[in-house]
């Protein structure tokens, strides 16, 4: 029996997909791989195949429904990141919980956060200017903006916000161990449980207050369900955005796009979408889908019990879906990227992340048009683990 290629594949550039992914997409996709944890899986890298797997009812996210034990779930992290959340559920339970999200976490609620987010961004730039260059953009801006926004959304007191940053880092980055991540989940759930109980006694108009008081067709959420929904939003609304802000700024400064956005601020919305397509945030594919019935993907017949990993970074550079996909085109119009997924499990925090990234880019390019890297691009140190990638620090000057 031949040895399956180990997954994730090695990469020679922090913000470029591995060349092995390109080989997989242009070869006989999908390909069989052995992830770092769990059973072997089929790796899907083509755009149309990815959309199909993410939206077809032939694939599920509930490992119990698929008859797959937790320790056999194909994954790239030691702890199953989505464990206990509605991200690993299928209809009808997933549909039930998603209704509560749509009822409470509305586009209007996100837009209501825009003025406050702009005030936070402006305050952070004020602090940067007062401090003076050089400074670490990640520490002074990228890390603070999203955690303050998500805590404003949830109604978390200012004094507790550092705890949320630490919990999110432990859960998603795995700088330590699976035991440390599990302990952080337990601590966060205990904290959120107390917060939810307080909201039940003293209603508020923040998101946790809305979740604990919401009723949909006579149904309401348990405290555990509120906790798990908040965990998903925390990952989408803090950790990913905190990483993408310095990623985006690095690419823009290194490639000349920053000066263009400073001169053409109307391009910021399309630039955000293009950077979401172009930058592979998650190190490699994660969140396995489980085959529930015989189904063909890319000419390969899959069977119940098989597992599939979808790789958006490869799909987002598929020339069958995007013109000149290896070029970062800040004015790209037709851009149906998969950075937020697709189908039933599309990221619930997509609107929040978009809003934050738009404000971050518009504020920095508008107020600091002379921003530049304080050290050569090839000397920027990178944090690349089994889940996210970003600069360890991004020293800038102006």
From TrEMBL:
Name of the protein described by the UniProt record: Cytochrome P450
InterPro entries for this protein: Cyt_P450 (IPR001128), Cyt_P450_B (IPR002397), Cyt_P450_CS (IPR017972), Cyt_P450_sf (IPR036396)
Keyword Lyase among record annotations: no
Annotated coiled-coil segments of the chain: none
Keyword set, alphabetical order: Heme, Iron, Metal-binding, Monooxygenase, Oxidoreductase
Family: Belongs to the cytochrome P450 family.
Molecular function terms, GO-annotated: heme binding; iron ion binding; monooxygenase activity; oxidoreductase activity, acting on paired donors, with incorporation or reduction of molecular oxygen
SUPFAM superfamilies, per the entry: Cytochrome P450
Top-level taxon of the source organism: Bacteria
Organism listed in the record: Actinomadura rubrisoli
A Pfam family recorded for this sequence: p450
Gene3D superfamilies noted in UniProt: Cytochrome P450
